[in-house]
Amino acid sequence: MVTRIGLDFGTANTVVAVWDADELHGRPIELAGLDLLRPGATGITQRVIPSVIAYAPQTGQRLVGAAVTPAMFDDHTYAVFQSTKSVITQRVRDIARRVGATKIHRRQAATDLLSDIIAATLLAVDDDTEIVATAPVEAFDSYRDWIVREVAAQVGLSRVRVVDEATAAAVGYSTKLKLGDTFLVFDFGAGTLDISVARIIDSSKDPGGAGVRVVAKAGADLGGDSIDLIVAEHLADRLRLPANDARRRNLLFGQLLRTVETAKVALTQLPEHTVSVTCQESGTTYETVLGRDTFEALLASNGVTERVKRVVQSALVRAAGMGHDAGDISSVFMVGGASLIPAVQRIVHSYFPPGMVHLDRPLEAVAAGAAGIAGGRELHDHIQHNYLIRHVDRTTGQYRFECIVPAGIEYPTHEPVKTLTIRAIRHGQHSLGLAVYEQAHATYRESSSELELIFDENGGARVNRISEEQQQEHSMLWLNENNPTFLDADPPGVAGEDRFRLDFRIDAQKRLIVSAFDIGQHRWVLTDRPVVRLS
Fold first, then answer.
1. Which among 113, 85, 76 is positioned nearest to 458, based on CA atoms?
2. Cβ count within 10 A of residue 396
3. Comparing 247 with 459, which gets the higher pLDDT?
4. What is the pTM for the complete model shown?
5. What single Pfam family name could you report for this chain, choosing any that match (predicted)?
6. Angle at Cα 324 formed by Cα 319 and Cα 327, nearest 5°?
7. Which residue, 41, 74, 384, 403, has most beta carbons within 10 Å?
């Protein structure tokens, strides 16, 4: 018997779900000692594993999830790591932290954390398993490689599939809908905001009788952690945390971030919450009251509410461009912890009537969808980013970029998505190729956050502001930097003379493939050769 598992490793919480073939939905697995129940919508509790790991160098212990208690954060015999997913998605710098006689990078902490969760899952299931893990769209390739090459290898897992989080969320809610329904998933987690518009379609391959086609996506590098940073910066100034001792301030700021997260959750139900941090060395306590009015004013003044509105509008415009107007949407499902914030809910309700909007188990939906994909619910998706090649302009001699795969195209493609002719740039050239780039933020996502969280080697935290130039640098990713040439010219090429015609397609594995015709030799030299994987 094969057990189908969905795994959603989140910045704040991780959820493991199993596919129930009888009920046709994913449900969380109980992992005693690792998970706990957290409130979701009113009257609903959800089973999650806190995404934290603690090392105890004196005893050699490694604790994860609910086994890490709040007291351990301020206990110097433990080194606690949180928000480690942000390192994998490259939103946080990976500064090593001293743990006993060694140093541990946050990437290794993330690998240990997810490996331990998977190991506990395999013990709990005690069957042959098929695992579908989720990955953020904006860092899909690097994140998938990390799961397959590092996490799976560490735990001895031979079979794992990776899908993007936005699509998994759509599949997670698709079981509640009927054939032909168009719906929107609003996924606002700790790390990112992702919105998907999807439709239930016929699919003879799906045991449940229907598949899911994602028709539009939009997103932003904005999440609950971004909100915590904004509020913590405001409160740090109000509390007058010591400015002349960087080490002490960073430790206090790390405490403040955790306290602000607690306050953020409390303010979903209460009008105000007391925020308090204590310096472990001096014993000084800094305390203030954070009201919901102040909290929501900070969201507005720092552009959070406006950015959320822009992403919703972007998703609706993209869906309309694919033939699905806002009026066609029958249901809206809110996912992720930040969806519980009343100000965020009001934004969504301003676009859709309350009866259409559902806040049903927002922390579990992505893992449930991944379990559904593992269980056979069919998935129909499209390319989320623009992909470009870099070449030399024949007129100016300068580098320029040309799009070969536009965002929104469905795959696989039977006809070429682009046909190009390339030539040698010097006499006697043997190896030819193209540099392929992913335009990371130009279509699907808004530009990255202006704030960057940096954890220091002592476990403290500070905020760094990112310049517009740095954001631009992050917007283009050279995918085949280590292998840009894939054509062998025999005999060698002649400078300026057309040599190869290239036909680009996308296969069912979401890979850009190329077939190459040697113009000089009048023969095909490559057929459906994979170049890069797309997302």
1. 76
2. 8
3. 247
4. 0.71
5. HSP70
6. 110
7. 384
pLDDT digits (tens, 9 = 90+) for 431-452: 888 888 887 544 445 554 555 5
Kind of pairing between the strands at 285-291 and 272-278 = antiparallel
**Residue 410 has what DSSP assignment?**
B
Closest by CA position to 485, among listed 500, 496, 472, 495: 500
Give the single-character DSSP code of 264: H
Choose the CATH number for 386-440+475-533 among 2.60.40, 2.60.34, 3.40.50, 2.20.110: 2.60.34
Give the torsion sign (CA, 52, 39, 376, 214).
Answer: negative
Give the CA radius of gyration of the chain. 25
> Quick check: 529 and 517 in contact, CB under 8 A?
no
Domain range list for the chain: 2-223+305-380, 386-440+475-533
Would you give the DSSP letter of residue 151? I
**Over the stretch 136-187, which tens digit does the pLDDT of each residue have?**
876 777 888 899 889 999 998 877 888 888 778 878 877 677 888 899 989 9
The first and second tokens of residue 284, run together, are 């000084």
Helix, strand, or coil (residue 356): helix
CATH code for the part of the protein at 2-223+305-380: 3.30.420.40
What confidence category does residue 91 fall into, taking pLDDT thresholds of 50, 70 and 90?
A: low
